[in-house]
Every structure is written in C-alpha cells, then in structure tokens.
Amino acid sequence: MGTKQQIAIGIALQTHVLKTCPLHNQLYCDDEECSDSENMARAFAVAVELVRHEPYAEEFHHDAHELTDILSYTIGATPTCCPECMQARYPANGTASAESYASV
Ligand SMILES: [Zn+2]
Q: What residue ranges do the domains of the chain occupy?
C-alpha cells in the first residue's frame, strides 16, 4: 500500500467514510455511511484542504485532484463489511469480498 493511499485512508477514517473492524482491524465501508454524501463531501473537503499544506502539498504537487481520485478509488475498492467477519458469517462464499479487499 502506497503512502498516498495511506493518506487517503487516514482521511476516510477521520471523516467516518471508512471504518475499521474492532475484531480484525480490517477496513470496511459501512453501507449507510458510504451512501451518506455528507461524509463523502467532508472527506473531499479535508483532502482539498490537506493538499494546501506541507508535507502533503509537495507529495501531491499542489494538486488536490490526485488525492481526491485516490480517495474515491480507495473508498470504492473497500468491501462493505469486514472480509473476515463476512467469512465467519458465510464461510462458503467469502472469497468474492476477500478478492476485492486484496486489490486495495
Ligand atoms: Zn471483522
């Protein structure tokens, strides 16, 4: 996982768009929160603000679009619930979500 993606995940966690499973420490995107455009808007606002300041300004070459792109990609690629919780609940078909998590 790259530094830029870690920054994006940090923003998503801070704005509650993404959550961490308390049992497995795995990232997931709560269905309700994901469709909550207010949280998403806040995440993008934080990203735009962050890129105005060092060291992020240099990292993203003063271009907030790069960070907002990574942010929306990261949120889109995160499963809607913890893959390990899913597997515990549905042991036979947990592979699809495990695969989508691996691409993050
Ligand atoms: Zn879990």
A: 3-102
Comparing CA positions, the residue from 20, 6, 21, 5 lying closest to residue 69 is 5
CA 82–ligand 1 middle distance (angstroms): 5
Spatial contact of 11 and 71, defined as CB atoms under 8 Å apart: yes
Q: What is the sign, positive or negative, of the torsion defined by CA atoms of 38, 16, 97, 1?
A: positive
Taking ligand 1, which is a single-atom ion, which protein residues have CB atoms under 5 Å away? 21, 23-24, 82, 84-85
Of the chain, the percentage scoring pLDDT greater than 70 comes to 81
52-89 pLDDT tens trace: 999 999 999 999 999 999 999 999 999 988 999 988 88
This prediction's pTM: 0.77
CA 23 to centroid of ligand 1, rounded, Å: 5
Q: CA 63, CA 45: separation in Å to the nearest integer?
A: 13
- How far apart CA 1 and CA 62 sit, in angstroms, is 22
